[in-house]
Design brief:
alpha+beta, L-fuculose-1-phosphate Aldolase, eight-stranded mixed β-sheet, 15% strand
Length: 226
């Protein structure tokens, strides 16, 4: 039997998953997970718009095989939790602008304030191979570096947070960062200064959770994605 804490985490993971769908950040593919001590709670391989808390799966962080119904790319989640102890939740999505950006550059510098919350820059993972093996998951986690999000070449993006809501917020910020970068001319876009980046990063702990709450409320008010 699951504890009340685990049940609450299942609910928050499912709410975050439905928010990604309602916000248009995923298509038929995508997943959300959260760390629960030595396990992760993750959404199943299903349309996130209809995921319920009871659908979520528990996977040991030290797993050597994935349970039935688990997304094959769960290897990326496991590797990120193992490599970065501060990571509390992960969102995997396909913002349209990230697909274009991922084919044009290997790193995106912040071109607006909120993008600074993802790191000094957003790296682009150089391979479009599906991350369906443990070794590929480990290589992806290593490539993330100090950033809290990464664009996956030809395959959308992945973002991390302290909890499911902030992981959704980070993914939303990444989507906007990609759109702004493209609108500003891509490789010729002017980035923020080091001082500006630090000033925005100083308020991340205050403002990113606020954005997460706003996005989940907005998604819930909008109803199921269509």
């Amino acid at each position: 039997m699951c504890s009340s804490t685990t049940q609450s985490l299942d609910i928050r993971v499912a709410e975050a998953a439905r928010a990604l769908a309602a916000l248009g950040l995923v298509d038929a593919f995508g997943h959300v997970s959260a760390r629960d001590v030595d396990h992760m709670v993750i959404t199943p391989a299903a349309d996130l718009a209809s995921v319920a808390a009871s659908d979520c799966l528990r996977v040991p962080l030290a797993a050597t095989a994935l349970p039935s119904g688990c997304p094959a790319e769960a290897w990326a989640h496991l590797a990120l939790y193992q490599r970065y102890p501060a990571t509390g939740a992960i969102a995997r999505a396909q913002p349209a602008a990230s697909l274009a950006v991922g084919m044009r550059t290997d790193r995106v510098a912040p071109t607006h304030g909120q993008a600074c919350w993802l790191g000094d820059s957003i790296p682009v993972y150089p391979s479009a191979l599906l991350v369906r093996e443990a070794d590929r998951g480990r290589r992806l986690a290593e490539a993330m570096g100090a950033a809290d999000a990464m664009i996956l070449r030809g395959n959308g993006a992945i973002a991390t947070g302290s909890d499911p809501a902030t992981a959704v917020a980070a993914m939303s910020v990444l989507a906007t960062a990609c759109t702004v970068w493209l609108q500003m001319g891509g490789e010729t876009a002017a980035s923020l200064s080091a001082e500006e980046i630090r000033s925005w990063q100083a308020v991340k702990a205050e403002l990113l959770p606020r954005l997460g709450v706003h996005l989940l409320r907005k998604a819930a008010a909008a109803g199921p994605a269509r």
